[in-house]
UniProtKB/TrEMBL annotation:
Residue intervals of the Alpha-macroglobulin-like TED domain: 14-174
PANTHER family in the cross-refs: ALPHA-2-MACROGLOBULIN, MACROGLOBULIN / COMPLEMENT
Protein name in the entry: PZP protein
Origin: domain of life: Eukaryota
GO cellular component terms given for this protein: extracellular space
Lineage: Eukaryota, Metazoa, Chordata, Craniata, Vertebrata
One Pfam assignment: TED_complement
Length: 174
């Protein structure tokens, strides 16, 4: 999908590929808001304020997919909305898969990993991407992340680095 936004005479094209299998307005709005905040555009811009208002309303929904929560947490971190970020990260931590000193997230209903000799399982790209957004949300904190957040983030980074293939890349990610 391609979104076109005109800001101050400049047209910004944002290409969006929803990897996590979540194709809804909240995820799409979060993607666009993240892209605009990374430009960086000011949070005071009416387009950003309106998007954040929509995202704040949507973040209160209990049925949000874990992928959507990851996007929302990062969007709020970029916007400096640390209370919303913390609430989402606390919710995500309850849904985390914690094993072998690492932490990651997977889509609901996913088949368990197959443990075969001479075969190293690598997670699908959607799970690498989702976990990466959570890591970004942990590390994008104002002021700097706390010692506990950095410790938890290092466990996330451990899992992500374990997903690299021998060439240093990942399964088909953006």
């Amino acid at each position: 999908k391609t979104e076109e936004k005109k800001l101050g005479g400049v047209i910004i094209y944002i290409c969006i590929s929803v990897q996590g299998g979540v194709d809804n307005e909240v995820s799409l709005t979060a993607y666009i808001t993240i892209a605009l905040l990374e430009v960086p555009l000011p949070v005071t811009l009416s387009l950003i304020r309106n998007a954040l208002f929509c995202l704040e309303t949507a973040s209160d929904q209990k049925e949000n997919h874990v992928y959507t929560k990851a996007l929302l947490a990062y969007a709020f971190a970029l916007a400096g909305k640390m209370d919303k970020r913390k609430t989402l990260l606390d919710s995500l931590e309850k849904e985390a898969v914690k094993e072998d000193g690492s932490v990651h997230w997977q889509r609901p209903g996913k088949e368990p990993e197959v443990d075969l000799p001479y075969y190293r399982y690598r997670a699908p790209s959607a799970e690498v991407e989702m976990t990466s957004y959570v890591l970004l949300a942990y590390l994008t904190s104002q002021p700097a992340p706390s010692r506990e957040e950095l410790s938890f983030a290092s466990r996330i980074a451990k899992w992500i680095s374990g997903q690299q293939n021998p060439n240093g890349g990942f399964s088909s990610t953006q």
